[in-house]
């Protein structure tokens, strides 16, 4: 902001606009719901600020100076822009919006959160677009702060604490393998479980140890993990076409007719899925609408 504007009471510009419309102090005062002496004092301050009389007495009211005429249109545009900037936010109308939403999610949350939301989003806000990206947990908070992403979906164990959050649902693990798997006709014993060939999802890549192995280690036991993959989609396909088994989140295999699901013989701690967003968009009506749509969908 330049030094001249810092020295000016912006209310004086509203008064100047009224004076340039009315060409009369009394009528300008009535338009502004102010007293005539108050407007006269403000006119004197405006003259001092601009170094110009601005309005001169004439036979039919006051006549604007050349300087005042030059101010007329820029002043009107500036006040209109300022009024728009400070006006209350308009209610969000999803049917008319063409907004692009950017959500950070890995494949599990794509399947369990965004896929159930997509149908409602396309129905209620058909002109909007959704961009799903994968962002490392270490940088999602910065990306959200910069406005590069609107929402983040992640397990509570790695959620950035600096973002606002809402729990969408709690998840638990089940044991899954192909339909007709000879070892999954009923829930296996713990010893049988450990002898099976297991697959594991390792988002960071290549790990053969997960939360199930930590629980087993506390009991002095181990299992056979023979496949490590980065995505749940590949895991589901691998389970359906081999005799591998896996401890998987229950929502991931719900309704999958190619897989057999049984309760595991060992209790593995589950997790919560969070929806996260930055403070900068917390009160945005459009953002609030999207968050509520997602909550309803899942």
UniProtKB/TrEMBL annotation:
InterPro entries: LysR-type_TF (IPR050389), LysR_HTH_N (IPR000847), LysR_subst-bd (IPR005119), WH-like_DNA-bd_sf (IPR036388), WH_DNA-bd_sf (IPR036390)
GO MF annotation terms: DNA binding; DNA-binding transcription factor activity
Record key words, sorted: DNA-binding, Transcription, Transcription regulation
Domain HTH lysR-type, chain residue ranges per copy: 8-65
Lineage: superkingdom: Bacteria
Pfam families: HTH_1 (PF00126), LysR_substrate (PF03466)
PANTHER family: HTH-TYPE TRANSCRIPTIONAL REGULATOR LEUO-RELATED (PTHR30118), TRANSCRIPTIONAL REGULATORY PROTEIN (PTHR30118:SF15)
Family to which the UniProt record says this protein belongs: Belongs to the LysR transcriptional regulatory family.
Protein name: LysR family transcriptional regulator
């Amino acid at each position: 902001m330049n030094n001249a504007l810092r020295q000016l009471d912006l209310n004086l510009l509203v008064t100047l606009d009224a004076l340039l419309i009315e060409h009369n102090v009394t009528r300008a005062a009535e338009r502004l719901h102010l007293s005539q002496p108050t407007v006269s004092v403000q006119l004197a301050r405006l003259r001092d600020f601009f170094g110009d009389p601005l309005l001169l007495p004439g036979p039919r009211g006051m006549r604007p100076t050349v300087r005042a005429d030059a101010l007329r249109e820029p002043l009107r545009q500036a006040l209109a822009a300022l009024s728009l900037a400070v006006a209350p936010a308009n209610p969000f109308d999803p049917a008319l919006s063409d907004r692009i939403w950017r959500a950070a999610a890995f494949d599990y949350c794509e399947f369990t959160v965004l896929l159930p939301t997509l149908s409602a989003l396309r129905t209620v806000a058909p002109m909007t677009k959704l961009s799903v990206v994968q962002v490392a947990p270490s940088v999602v908070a910065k990306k959200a702060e910069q406005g590069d992403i609107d929402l983040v979906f992640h397990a509570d164990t790695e959620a950035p604490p600096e973002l606002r959050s809402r729990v969408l649902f709690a998840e638990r693990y089940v044991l899954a393998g192909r339909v007709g798997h000879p070892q999954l006709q009923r829930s296996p014993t713990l010893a049988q479980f450990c002898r099976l060939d297991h697959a594991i999802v390792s988002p960071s890549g290549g790990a053969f140890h997960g939360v199930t192995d930590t629980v087993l280690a506390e009991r002095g036991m181990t299992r056979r993990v023979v496949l490590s993959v980065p995505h749940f989609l590949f895991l589901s396909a691998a389970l359906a076409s081999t005799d591998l088994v896996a401890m998987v989140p229950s929502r991931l295999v719900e309704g999958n007719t190619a897989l057999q699901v049984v309760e595991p013989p060992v209790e593995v701690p589950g997790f919560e899925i969070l929806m996260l967003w930055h403070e900068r968009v917390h009160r945005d009506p459009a953002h609030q609408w999207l968050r509520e749509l997602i909550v309803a969908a899942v």
